[in-house]
Amino acid sequence: MEEICVYHLNLCKSSIKGSKIVLLPGDPFRVPEIAQEIKKQYGREIKELAWKREYRTFLCHVNKKPILITSTGIGGPSTSIAIEELAMLGVRLFIRVGTTGAIQKDIKVGDVIITTGSVRLDGASTHYAPIEYPAVANHEITNALIEGAEKVRVKYYVGITASSDTFYPGHERYDSFTKYVPKRFQGSMKELQKLHVLNYEMESSTVLTLTSAMGLKGGCISGVVVNRTSREKITKESLALGEINAVKVAVSSIEFLI
Ligand code: URA
Q: pLDDT tens digits, residue range 116-165?
């Protein structure tokens, strides 16, 4: 039988050893960090399988089950390619592990947000399902992420995320080149706050829409790296804190899913 190989991820089915679960950070440099956390929590060997463009993949094991970590790059288009190609190789459960800007006052840097559903401010997901179709997380993944956060004692919030294609206008950021936010997004943060949306990020609407539409399972956890109600800048320290907590929770949730 001919081996199934995928172009962008540069992976073949035989190399992923039957992995059904993948963790999806955006940043390729976060992939070995997550692999190290898996090794720390579950004590098994880790192996780099491929790195092409933004797509870097490691194979790990949790309780003898193979688990993948693949970076998606930033935003919906590159994330959609990762989901398509991983699904072709046999992966069925997709957990985004990212960073985020909180938009509700009480949420602090280092807290994590477990997304139940996303406001679809992206474009890629509309190529898979009409905008009326909900971007919702799989309940088993959501529950596992909650159990993971309880286990490692990281403060978590569960709720709705705004997921936008752009970091600057789509998140109503004024610290951009022109400082101009087009009319469509002026006042959008305030409206999302009123609608009890918790945070901004850039990939969850793609992950949740595509997985639901394809009959797969998707979830999302994000570490808070800035609270947008008080500032726009992300610092090195806030990034490190948000990242490590999201990674710890995501990794600890895997045992509740296998
Ligand atoms: N990641 C995002 O997409 N937005 C933020 O504000 C912070 C991290």
A: 999 999 999 999 999 999 999 999 999 999 999 999 999 999 999 999 99
Catalytic residue among 8, 84, 232, 255: 8
- Within the chain, residue ranges assigned H as helices are 30-42, 76-89, 139-152, 188-194, 204-213, 236-253
Q: Residue 1: its pLDDT value, please? A: 79
Against a cut of 0.85, is the pTM above it?
Answer: yes
Q: Would you place residue 45 in the very low, low, confident or very high pLDDT band (cuts 50, 70, 90)?
A: confident
| Atom from ligand 1 closest to the CA of residue 164 | 3
Catalytic residue among 37, 85, 172, 243: 85
CATH code, domain with 59: 3.40.50.1580
Query: The domain containing residue 172 runs over which residues?
Result: 5-256
Expressed in angstroms and rounded, the spacing between residue 204 Cα and the centre of ligand 1 is 12
- How far from each other are the two terminal CA atoms of the chain, in whole angstroms? 29
99 CB less than 6 Å from ligand 1? yes
Nearest to 66 by CA among 46, 85, 82: 46
225 lines ligand 1 (CB under 6 A): yes
Residue with tokens 């992939």: 31
